[in-house]
Amino acid sequence: MANTPNTSTGVEDIETSTSLTELTRCEGLWYEDGSIVLASEGVGFRVYRMLLAQNSSVFANMLAMSSPESNIDPSYDCPIVHMPDSAAQLRYLLLALHDVRATERLKRAPFMETIAVASLAAKYEIGHLLDSAVERFASMYPTSFNKWVTTRGTPVTPVLKPGQHHAALQLAHQLQMSHLVPVILLAMCYGGVRSILRSGLPPHDLEVLLLGFTKLQVMQRTHTFRWLYRPVVRCTAPASCNRRRAEMSLLMEKMFSCDKLYVFDLSLEQFSVPLSEVLCDRCVTDAFRTQKAGLESAWEDLPSVFGMETWHKLGAK
Ligand SMILES: [Zn+2]
After folding, report:
1. Judging by DSSP bridges, how do beta strands 43-47 and 36-40 pair with one another?
2. Cα–ligand 1 centroid distance for 128 (angstroms)
3. In angstroms, what is the span from residue 291 Cα to ligand 1's centroid?
4. Which of 64, 92, 100, 245 has the most CB atoms lying inside 10 A of its own CB?
């Protein structure tokens, strides 16, 4: 941002002049009859002081204490308050605050908007926006296995980038939503090791995540595809079934040795050749039953993969 003061008499003049004259008016959040200008990163939002104070006790106290009447900006003929938040996040918060259908808006909000509104609504104690944004945020990281399977990669649970999961992790910590943390970490692991390394996590979190990734790789054999690695006692065609399981497990090992995880989302229905064509009826029944039990138990163990308490103790519903 260039400094273009009209009269340069000193550093203070420059800073004051810069802050007062260089604001870019935020489209959609510049009401001509607005009663206060919030400024952040060179962007100005001309909004209604009463609306801020009525919805947020933090804003109410802040505006009362700073007595903005004494800080009227001649350029805008109303008080100007410099905010510590990023302009992008502040814009999302103010858009939601000025939307009479904020609840509906937040039900469909994209990831960055959800994160911004939840984080700032918590900071400024704007209860109704916080509730809606938290609900939307939680829907992106379902804590039940069935919801994970059915909603992953859909508009409800978009496939997010590593940096976005990192932001989600920070928000979960800020809002003390520990029960979402295992799912956020799982989502990061699904991106593979390269993606984990690009996530920008601090060293300790990185270590937890990489160890977790390794444990999830092992769980593919011990839980999800356990049926591939052991004979079935009541099998009616042991020679043939054991041979076909050995062939399939070799193929599976090739898949497991890449930078991906299949622990929770490779269903037996997706196999190119139906199991009933290669295994006897009893082995097919065993495969489906063992995999279902393995998946459920793997999900149950998910928090422990990342060194966390059980779902129940974390407060998952
Ligand atoms: Zn068999």
Report:
1. antiparallel
2. 58
3. 16
4. 92
Is position 316 within any domain?
no
Query: 60 versus 7: which is more confidently predicted?
Result: 60
Residue 57 to residue 125: CA distance in whole angstroms? 7
How close is the Cα of 237 to the center of ligand 1, in Å?
Answer: 5
Residues 57 and 30 in one domain: yes
152 and 136 belong to one structural domain: yes
| Distance of CA 292 from the midpoint of ligand 1 (Å) | 18
The count of structural domains within the chain is 3
Q: 219 C-alpha to center of ligand 1: Å?
A: 24
User: pTM here?
Assistant: 0.84
Least Cα distance to 222 among 298, 296, 170, 152 occurs for 298
Q: 301 CA distance to ligand 1 centroid (A)?
A: 29
Residue 23 DSSP symbol: P
Q: Which of 26, 61, 86 is the last residue of a domain?
A: 86
Residue 67 pLDDT grade (very low, low, confident, very high; cuts 50, 70, 90): low
Domain range spanning residue 68? Answer: 15-86
